[in-house]
Design goal:
The chain is an all-alpha fold and 79 residues long. Helix content is 84%, strand content 0%.
């Protein structure tokens, strides 16, 4: 019976870990380097889906901001 409780506690600990969000440093990294965010997403998508989603969202936002900044830069250059 104690083995069953032990297995349940291990499952519960793993399940709690899956609901944690991504750390702020990794969010900043995902935003600044979208490729890193994609890699973090694929690494964490099975065990930590909430963190993986955060990495993916930050990578997509960073990618979009990069495109907008490139358009503004191109428009102001007058080429």
């Amino acid at each position: 019976m104690s083995e069953e409780n032990s297995n349940f506690n291990e499952f519960e600990k793993r399940n709690d870990n899956s609901q944690e969000d991504l750390s702020t440093g990794l969010k900043v990294l995902s935003f600044c380097i979208p490729l890193a965010g994609a890699i973090i997403y694929f690494v964490k998508k099975e065990n930590e889906p909430v963190a993986a989603k955060s990495a993916c969202n930050m990578a997509l936002i960073g990618f979009g901001v990069g495109i907008v900044l490139q358009i503004i830069r191109y428009a102001t250059a007058g080429v």
